[in-house]
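Lecture notes, continued. The same structure-token format from the folding unit now serves as the input rather than the output. Read the line below as a description of shape only.
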């Protein structure tokens, strides 16, 4: 009987060993299948994460004309104005020849924020153009434009004004709606002669209209000028709105108006509003301003659309 018991024990131990071994391999199979499913899930997740970039359909090497978010100077608009006016030097040769006017500079802000492809879009004086390009090329990195949350390269414009009689350098604001029309005129000759090397959508371009005597221009060889000190006139005539003063509100209103051939002011409108009575006060003063010296193009007196920033600051 003892022998029989021992044999039964051995049989039970062997059976338990086989069962345990079977479970082991069964668990290994389950583990292997689980790992395969986990790997497949990870690959699917990576694919889903990459989907938004594919959906955006941005071209990494393209230069965009229309973007969701425009490139921005690193800092405030006042900081950009300060950089332009302090870094730009009036070329001596241009001073000797009394060269002046507004030089409109076009450049590309890359997707990394670097400044490239700096060219003069308007302006006939090489010395002024070269100085304007030099200053724009040395600007610090910008915040790049975005299309569907993806950083892209985009074109940008800055205008620099030169006045020879007092060696004055000014930063000229280019409104968005005017920038678009200027781009059409600037790229038209490229489209007709060389196809589309700059990524301009031909459907967005139209033939430039022939200039007539009644056209209102934006940039001319000789811009209109106020007879006297413009900012002194504004300081003496602008009445700080009471509601803005009581609430200690400061800011800048950008106004646009036409300087007619006789120097009179017409069609004044607010381009950048501040509220608090500042917009109305700006229009009141501009609509009552004395006649200006009219602008000239090719020696002829022309109508000019003028943009003027008016600052309100408490003392």
């Amino acid at each position: 009987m003892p022998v029989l018991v021992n044999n039964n024990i051995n049989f039970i131990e062997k059976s338990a060993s086989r069962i345990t071994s079977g479970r082991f391999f069964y668990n290994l199979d389950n583990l292997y299948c689980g790992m395969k499913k986990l790997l497949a899930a990870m690959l699917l997740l990576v694919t889903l994460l990459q989907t938004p970039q594919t959906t955006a359909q941005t071209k990494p090497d393209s230069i965009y004309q229309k973007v969701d978010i425009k490139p921005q100077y690193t800092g405030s608009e006042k900081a950009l104005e300060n950089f332009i006016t302090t870094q730009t030097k009036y070329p001596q040769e241009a001073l000797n020849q009394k060269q002046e006017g507004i030089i409109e500079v076009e450049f590309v802000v890359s997707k990394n924020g670097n400044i490239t492809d700096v060219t003069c879009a308007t302006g006939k004086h090489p010395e002024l153009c070269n100085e304007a390009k030099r200053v724009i090329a040395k600007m610090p990195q910008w915040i790049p434009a975005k299309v569907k949350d993806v950083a892209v390269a985009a074109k940008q414009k800055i205008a620099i004004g030169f006045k020879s009689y007092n060696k004055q350098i000014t930063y000229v604001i280019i409104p968005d709606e005017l920038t678009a029309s200027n781009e059409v005129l600037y790229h038209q000759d490229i489209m007709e002669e060389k196809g589309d090397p700059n990524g301009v959508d031909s459907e967005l371009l139209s033939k430039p209209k022939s200039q007539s005597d009644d056209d209102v221009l934006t940039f001319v060889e000789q811009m209109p000028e106020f007879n006297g000190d413009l900012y002194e006139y504004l300081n003496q005539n602008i009445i700080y709105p009471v509601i803005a003063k009581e609430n200690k509100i400061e800011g800048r209103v950008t106004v646009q108006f036409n300087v007619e051939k006789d120097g009179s002011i017409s069609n004044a409108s607010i381009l950048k509003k501040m509220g608090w009575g500042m917009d109305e006060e700006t229009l009141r003063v501009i609509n009552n301003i004395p006649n200006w010296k009219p602008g000239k193009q090719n020696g002829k007196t022309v109508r000019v659309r003028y943009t003027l920033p008016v600052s309100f600051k408490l003392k």
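Point for the exam: Residues 1-56 form one domain.
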